[in-house]
Amino acid sequence: MLIFTDLKCGFAGIGLETAKDLARRGARVLMACRDPQRGQKALEAVRAEATGGASVELLSLDLSSLQSVRACAAKVLALEPRLHILINNAGAVNVAHAPTKDGLHDTLQVNFLGPFLLTVLLVELLQRSAPARVVFVSSSYHRFARLTPDLLDYPRARELHAVQVYCLSKLAVVIVANELSRRLKGTGVTVNSIHPGAVNTAIFRHFPPWISLFFNAFLRIFMIVTYFVIDRACVTACVMAFPIV
Protein backbone atom coordinates (compact mmCIF):
# COMPACT_ATOMS: atom_id res chain seq x y z
CA MET A 1 0.00 0.00 0.00
CA LEU A 2 1.16 3.52 -0.72
CA ILE A 3 0.11 7.10 -0.18
CA PHE A 4 0.99 10.12 -2.17
CA THR A 5 0.29 13.80 -1.58
CA ASP A 6 -0.92 16.35 -2.66
CA LEU A 7 -3.50 16.43 -5.46
CA LYS A 8 -4.03 20.19 -5.42
CA CYS A 9 -5.21 20.50 -9.01
CA GLY A 10 -7.13 17.24 -9.00
CA PHE A 11 -7.14 16.80 -12.77
CA ALA A 12 -3.56 17.63 -13.72
CA GLY A 13 -0.11 17.37 -12.21
CA ILE A 14 2.71 15.04 -11.29
CA GLY A 15 0.69 13.51 -8.46
CA LEU A 16 -2.17 12.45 -10.71
CA GLU A 17 0.17 10.87 -13.26
CA THR A 18 2.06 9.09 -10.49
CA ALA A 19 -1.17 7.64 -9.14
CA LYS A 20 -2.16 6.41 -12.61
CA ASP A 21 1.21 4.73 -13.12
CA LEU A 22 1.12 2.98 -9.76
CA ALA A 23 -2.48 1.87 -10.23
CA ARG A 24 -1.49 0.34 -13.56
CA ARG A 25 1.11 -1.68 -11.63
CA GLY A 26 -1.64 -3.17 -9.45
CA ALA A 27 -0.82 -1.25 -6.26
CA ARG A 28 -3.19 -0.23 -3.49
CA VAL A 29 -3.11 3.55 -3.72
CA LEU A 30 -4.29 6.12 -1.19
CA MET A 31 -4.45 9.55 -2.78
CA ALA A 32 -4.42 12.54 -0.43
CA CYS A 33 -6.19 15.69 -1.57
CA ARG A 34 -7.51 18.87 0.01
CA ASP A 35 -10.21 19.63 -2.58
CA PRO A 36 -12.97 16.94 -2.41
CA GLN A 37 -14.51 17.74 -5.80
CA ARG A 38 -11.24 17.75 -7.71
CA GLY A 39 -10.06 14.78 -5.72
CA GLN A 40 -13.14 12.83 -6.78
CA LYS A 41 -12.40 13.59 -10.45
CA ALA A 42 -8.84 12.38 -9.96
CA LEU A 43 -10.06 9.26 -8.18
CA GLU A 44 -12.29 8.35 -11.11
CA ALA A 45 -9.48 8.98 -13.60
CA VAL A 46 -7.04 6.77 -11.69
CA ARG A 47 -9.53 3.99 -11.11
CA ALA A 48 -10.21 3.92 -14.85
CA GLU A 49 -6.57 2.90 -15.42
CA ALA A 50 -6.17 0.49 -12.52
CA THR A 51 -5.20 -3.09 -13.38
CA GLY A 52 -4.13 -6.29 -11.68
CA GLY A 53 -6.37 -6.00 -8.65
CA ALA A 54 -5.32 -2.45 -7.83
CA SER A 55 -7.48 -0.50 -5.40
CA VAL A 56 -7.57 3.27 -5.25
CA GLU A 57 -8.99 5.35 -2.39
CA LEU A 58 -9.17 9.05 -1.56
CA LEU A 59 -8.03 10.63 1.70
CA SER A 60 -8.73 14.14 2.94
CA LEU A 61 -5.52 16.04 3.55
CA ASP A 62 -4.82 19.77 3.71
CA LEU A 63 -1.09 20.23 4.14
CA SER A 64 -1.64 23.88 5.10
CA SER A 65 -3.27 22.60 8.31
CA LEU A 66 -1.18 20.59 10.76
CA GLN A 67 -4.42 19.39 12.37
CA SER A 68 -5.48 17.95 9.00
CA VAL A 69 -2.09 16.26 8.62
CA ARG A 70 -2.43 14.63 12.03
CA ALA A 71 -6.00 13.52 11.27
CA CYS A 72 -4.92 11.97 7.96
CA ALA A 73 -2.05 10.10 9.61
CA ALA A 74 -4.36 8.87 12.39
CA LYS A 75 -6.82 7.50 9.82
CA VAL A 76 -4.06 5.65 7.99
CA LEU A 77 -2.71 4.18 11.22
CA ALA A 78 -6.19 3.06 12.24
CA LEU A 79 -7.13 1.44 8.93
CA GLU A 80 -3.95 0.21 7.25
CA PRO A 81 -1.79 -2.64 8.59
CA ARG A 82 1.06 -1.91 6.16
CA LEU A 83 2.58 1.02 4.31
CA HIS A 84 5.34 0.27 1.83
CA ILE A 85 5.62 3.52 -0.11
CA LEU A 86 5.02 7.15 0.84
CA ILE A 87 5.41 9.72 -1.94
CA ASN A 88 5.38 13.34 -0.76
CA ASN A 89 4.56 15.12 -3.98
CA ALA A 90 3.39 18.57 -2.87
CA GLY A 91 4.67 21.60 -4.75
CA ALA A 92 3.01 25.02 -4.42
CA VAL A 93 3.92 28.70 -4.74
CA ASN A 94 1.83 31.17 -2.73
CA VAL A 95 2.39 34.58 -4.32
CA ALA A 96 0.29 36.31 -1.65
CA HIS A 97 2.64 35.16 1.15
CA ALA A 98 -0.45 34.18 3.13
CA PRO A 99 0.02 32.64 6.59
CA THR A 100 -1.61 29.33 7.43
CA LYS A 101 -3.87 28.71 10.42
CA ASP A 102 -0.73 27.52 12.17
CA GLY A 103 0.98 30.88 11.64
CA LEU A 104 3.47 29.56 9.07
CA HIS A 105 4.18 30.58 5.50
CA ASP A 106 1.79 28.67 3.23
CA THR A 107 4.45 27.64 0.69
CA LEU A 108 6.81 26.39 3.40
CA GLN A 109 4.10 24.45 5.21
CA VAL A 110 2.55 22.83 2.13
CA ASN A 111 5.85 21.91 0.46
CA PHE A 112 7.94 21.02 3.49
CA LEU A 113 6.54 21.15 7.03
CA GLY A 114 3.25 19.34 6.30
CA PRO A 115 4.87 16.44 4.39
CA PHE A 116 7.62 16.20 7.00
CA LEU A 117 5.08 15.91 9.84
CA LEU A 118 3.10 13.30 7.90
CA THR A 119 6.24 11.25 7.34
CA VAL A 120 7.25 11.42 11.00
CA LEU A 121 3.77 10.31 12.10
CA LEU A 122 3.88 7.34 9.72
CA VAL A 123 7.51 6.33 10.13
CA GLU A 124 6.83 3.55 12.66
CA LEU A 125 4.27 2.00 10.31
CA LEU A 126 6.80 2.22 7.49
CA GLN A 127 9.39 0.46 9.66
CA ARG A 128 6.94 -2.33 10.55
CA SER A 129 6.20 -2.71 6.82
CA ALA A 130 9.85 -2.84 5.72
CA PRO A 131 11.11 -2.95 3.11
CA ALA A 132 9.55 0.46 2.58
CA ARG A 133 10.36 3.66 0.71
CA VAL A 134 9.77 7.37 1.22
CA VAL A 135 10.09 9.65 -1.80
CA PHE A 136 10.13 13.44 -1.46
CA VAL A 137 9.55 15.30 -4.72
CA SER A 138 11.90 18.27 -4.55
CA SER A 139 13.25 20.49 -7.34
CA SER A 140 16.55 21.55 -8.82
CA TYR A 141 15.50 25.05 -7.73
CA HIS A 142 16.75 24.09 -4.27
CA ARG A 143 20.20 25.05 -5.53
CA PHE A 144 19.18 28.71 -5.50
CA ALA A 145 18.34 28.76 -1.78
CA ARG A 146 20.34 29.27 1.38
CA LEU A 147 18.65 27.98 4.51
CA THR A 148 18.92 29.51 7.97
CA PRO A 149 16.52 28.64 10.83
CA ASP A 150 15.00 32.13 10.99
CA LEU A 151 13.75 31.80 7.39
CA LEU A 152 11.26 29.15 8.53
CA ASP A 153 9.40 31.77 10.60
CA TYR A 154 6.54 33.52 8.83
CA PRO A 155 7.63 37.16 9.47
CA ARG A 156 11.04 36.48 7.95
CA ALA A 157 9.85 34.29 5.08
CA ARG A 158 7.25 36.81 3.91
CA GLU A 159 10.08 39.29 3.22
CA LEU A 160 11.33 37.03 0.42
CA HIS A 161 10.04 36.75 -3.14
CA ALA A 162 7.50 33.94 -3.65
CA VAL A 163 9.94 32.02 -5.85
CA GLN A 164 12.66 32.36 -3.19
CA VAL A 165 10.34 30.79 -0.62
CA TYR A 166 9.58 27.95 -3.05
CA CYS A 167 13.32 27.32 -3.54
CA LEU A 168 13.80 27.45 0.23
CA SER A 169 11.04 24.89 0.80
CA LYS A 170 12.57 22.51 -1.71
CA LEU A 171 16.02 22.86 -0.12
CA ALA A 172 14.48 22.03 3.26
CA VAL A 173 12.94 18.92 1.68
CA VAL A 174 16.36 17.75 0.45
CA ILE A 175 17.99 18.36 3.84
CA VAL A 176 15.25 16.51 5.73
CA ALA A 177 15.28 13.59 3.28
CA ASN A 178 19.03 13.23 3.70
CA GLU A 179 18.76 13.30 7.49
CA LEU A 180 15.88 10.83 7.57
CA SER A 181 17.85 8.54 5.29
CA ARG A 182 20.76 8.66 7.74
CA ARG A 183 18.58 8.05 10.81
CA LEU A 184 16.63 5.19 9.22
CA LYS A 185 19.69 3.40 7.87
CA GLY A 186 19.45 -0.30 8.65
CA THR A 187 15.69 -0.24 9.35
CA GLY A 188 14.62 -1.30 5.88
CA VAL A 189 13.16 2.13 5.12
CA THR A 190 14.84 3.97 2.26
CA VAL A 191 14.39 7.74 1.91
CA ASN A 192 15.15 9.72 -1.24
CA SER A 193 14.48 13.19 -2.61
CA ILE A 194 14.16 13.67 -6.36
CA HIS A 195 14.04 16.33 -9.04
CA PRO A 196 11.24 15.26 -11.45
CA GLY A 197 12.67 17.23 -14.34
CA ALA A 198 11.31 20.37 -15.95
CA VAL A 199 7.62 19.62 -16.23
CA ASN A 200 4.75 21.44 -17.88
CA THR A 201 2.48 21.74 -14.82
CA ALA A 202 0.23 24.50 -13.49
CA ILE A 203 2.59 25.47 -10.65
CA PHE A 204 2.87 29.07 -11.91
CA ARG A 205 -0.88 29.49 -12.32
CA HIS A 206 -1.15 32.08 -9.51
CA PHE A 207 1.51 34.34 -11.01
CA PRO A 208 0.68 37.18 -13.42
CA PRO A 209 0.23 35.74 -16.94
CA TRP A 210 3.45 37.26 -18.30
CA ILE A 211 5.53 35.63 -15.54
CA SER A 212 3.90 32.26 -16.15
CA LEU A 213 4.58 32.54 -19.89
CA PHE A 214 8.20 33.55 -19.23
CA PHE A 215 8.93 30.59 -16.95
CA ASN A 216 7.35 28.08 -19.32
CA ALA A 217 9.18 29.57 -22.33
CA PHE A 218 12.46 29.51 -20.39
CA LEU A 219 12.02 25.85 -19.48
CA ARG A 220 11.12 24.86 -23.03
CA ILE A 221 14.09 26.67 -24.59
CA PHE A 222 16.89 26.06 -22.09
CA MET A 223 15.87 22.68 -20.70
CA ILE A 224 14.59 21.11 -23.90
CA VAL A 225 16.29 17.77 -23.26
CA THR A 226 14.55 17.22 -19.92
CA TYR A 227 11.35 19.21 -20.48
CA PHE A 228 8.59 16.68 -19.90
CA VAL A 229 4.97 16.64 -20.87
CA ILE A 230 2.83 15.91 -17.86
CA ASP A 231 2.24 12.21 -18.48
CA ARG A 232 6.01 11.54 -18.34
CA ALA A 233 6.54 13.58 -15.20
CA CYS A 234 5.98 10.65 -12.85
CA VAL A 235 8.87 8.56 -14.18
CA THR A 236 11.47 9.56 -11.57
CA ALA A 237 9.18 9.11 -8.58
CA CYS A 238 7.99 5.72 -9.79
CA VAL A 239 11.54 4.51 -10.44
CA MET A 240 12.53 5.48 -6.91
CA ALA A 241 9.40 3.85 -5.47
CA PHE A 242 9.87 0.66 -7.50
CA PRO A 243 13.63 0.51 -8.20
CA ILE A 244 13.59 -3.05 -9.49
CA VAL A 245 10.79 -2.50 -12.02
Automatic annotation (TrEMBL):
<dbReference type="InterPro" id="IPR036291">
    <property type="entry name" value="NAD(P)-bd_dom_sf"/>
</dbReference>
<keyword id="KW-0812">Transmembrane</keyword>
<dbReference type="GO" id="GO:0016491">
    <property type="term" value="F:oxidoreductase activity"/>
</dbReference>
<dbReference type="InterPro" id="IPR002347">
    <property type="entry name" value="SDR_fam"/>
</dbReference>
<keyword id="KW-0560">Oxidoreductase</keyword>
<keyword id="KW-1133">Transmembrane helix</keyword>
<feature type="transmembrane region" description="Helical">
    <location>
        <begin position="210"/>
        <end position="230"/>
    </location>
</feature>
<keyword id="KW-0472">Membrane</keyword>
<dbReference type="Pfam" id="PF13561">
    <property type="entry name" value="adh_short_C2"/>
</dbReference>
<protein>
    <recommendedName>
        <fullName>Short-chain dehydrogenase</fullName>
    </recommendedName>
</protein>
